[in-house]
Design a protein that fits this description.
There is one protein chain. This protein is an alpha+beta fold and 427 residues long. The chain folds into 2 domains: 221 residues, Jelly Rolls; 149 residues, Four Helix Bundle (Hemerythrin (Met), subunit A) (Up-down Bundle). Strand 3 and strand 4 form a beta hairpin. The chain is rod-shaped, with a radius of gyration of 48 Å.
Length: 427
């Protein structure tokens, strides 16, 4: 069967440009071989599914030119080898096409864009070449445009080897590294159009011998871009832009590639940073009103006692004392009134997540309130002493006021101890 017909038969499927990047063509790790060993073997081919090569379907072909037999073509252990026995001349090729079970229909219809990641050339190394009888061998790469299902849009480029290269078992590129720039591919003779490297499908590597007894071994076949196999969408780079990746390096915390969710400070994916903060709020308005009222009551009791002290002829001498004391008492009451409503009306106490909160101590304000209340008590006691000097047994109403003033101080101090001394402000 002519080589062109064979290629048309095996190159049924092609690749698309959906997220396409340059790829690994073949690392020649999967074992495959064929041999022409009888006079009846003029052309022979071998096709297998290979998950480790471009497209997933790989076909070897050998074509004998001389009458002698003994031509072997094989892949495996990182090499593609063509071996001709004495007096045997022939050509060999390896073609890669698409496995329909591995690729989307979109990939099949459009082809792979080999330029999308900046690739500019194919690269293949020579392990060894014996340069038998000083005759050259030609290595030709032919590419087919995936959009042309008749395979009449094809381009090729070739390099002729004209020197022997001894084998070196440990070095995968013991001979030269052959480069096939995309820009140097030209239209295949007989084809209708060139192949576009933005829409490549089938790729074929041909070994054309000019002599008998030729032995050639090639190293893995790549482009100079991403060295990985294409995925179902024809891309060798994943969504994260990683060559041969699995869309894992750019996953967000929800496992979505290129997603925008992040772990919040509570280690919750996409959270608002509040789930680990446990706080209890309490309305302090009634308590603050009681503190305010308590200060006013302390002042009112002192004012009533001063009014009793300064009445009548005997009280005239206390007029100046009263006039001097009343502004002081009022100022203390005003200060405690201010403190009462400076304290937060709603207090928040947090049991967890304190590290995300600013803790404010209310102790200084409460201490100041108690200090002013104590000063008011002192002035209350001073006025009571003056009354008791004048009247050993004051009227019941006055005695009651004296007692209530002392009790009010104790009540006000008790109210301050009911106010939470910590306030949490959590962002």
């Amino acid at each position: 069967m002519p080589l062109q017909i064979f290629i048309a038969a095996v190159a049924i499927l092609v690749l698309s440009t959906v997220r396409a990047y340059a790829i690994t063509i073949d690392e020649f790790q999967t074992a495959q071989s064929l041999s022409l060993v009888t006079p009846l073997d003029a052309v022979k081919s071998s096709t297998l599914n290979d998950a480790f090569s471009y497209g997933g379907i790989r076909t070897l072909e050998a074509q004998r030119i001389s009458s002698a037999t003994g031509l072997t073509v094989k892949s495996g252990q990182g090499s593609f080898t063509v071996s001709q026995d004495a007096f045997v001349q022939g050509h060999a090729s390896i073609a890669w096409s698409l496995d329909p079970s591995k690729f989307s229909s979109a990939v099949i219809s459009s082809g792979i864009d080999f330029k999308s990641d900046g690739s500019t050339k194919f690269i293949i190394g020579v392990r060894s070449f014996d340069f038998a009888f000083a005759h050259s061998v030609t290595i030709r790469i032919t590419v087919f445009d995936a959009r042309d299902t008749t395979f009449q849009s094809a381009s090729s480029s070739e390099i002729k080897l004209s020197n022997a290269f001894p084998p070196n078992g440990s070095n995968p590129f013991s001979g030269p590294v052959l480069e096939f720039p995309f820009s140097q591919f030209t239209q295949v003779g007989g084809a209708n159009n060139v192949a576009s490297f933005n829409h490549l499908g089938t790729i074929r590597l041909s070994i054309i011998s000019e002599s008998t007894d030729t032995d050639l071994s090639l190293a893995p076949f790549y482009t100079d871009g991403c060295r990985a196999l294409p995925d179902v969408d024809g891309a060798s780079r994943d969504l994260c832009g990683v060559c041969g990746g699995h869309n894992s390096s750019c996953k967000d915390c929800a496992g979505v590639p290129l997603g925008n969710l992040t772990l919040d400070r509570c280690n919750e994916c996409g959270g608002n940073g509040q789930s680990c903060i446990s706080c209890m709020e309490s309305d302090q308005t009634p308590l603050l009103a009681a503190l305010d009222g308590g200060a006013k009551k302390q002042e009112r009791i002192i004012k009533l006692l001063l009014a009793y002290l300064t009445r009548g002829p005997r009280g005239q001498r206390f007029k100046k004392y009263s006039a001097k004391l009343l502004p002081v008492v009022h100022m203390l009451q005003i200060r405690n009134w201010t403190i009462s409503w400076t304290l937060p009306r709603t207090t928040r106490k947090c049991s967890t997540g304190k590290q995300f909160c600013v803790e404010t101590s209310l102790t200084p304000l409460l201490t100041e309130y108690r200090s002013h209340a104590k000063e008011l008590l002192g002035h209350h006691n001073d006025v009571a002493k003056e009354i008791l000097r004048l009247i050993r047994r004051p009227p019941l109403k006055i005695a009651t006021l004296i007692r209530q003033g002392r009790e009010r101080y104790q009540l006000n101090v008790g109210l301050t101890k009911s106010v939470p001394i910590e306030q949490f402000a959590c962002s």
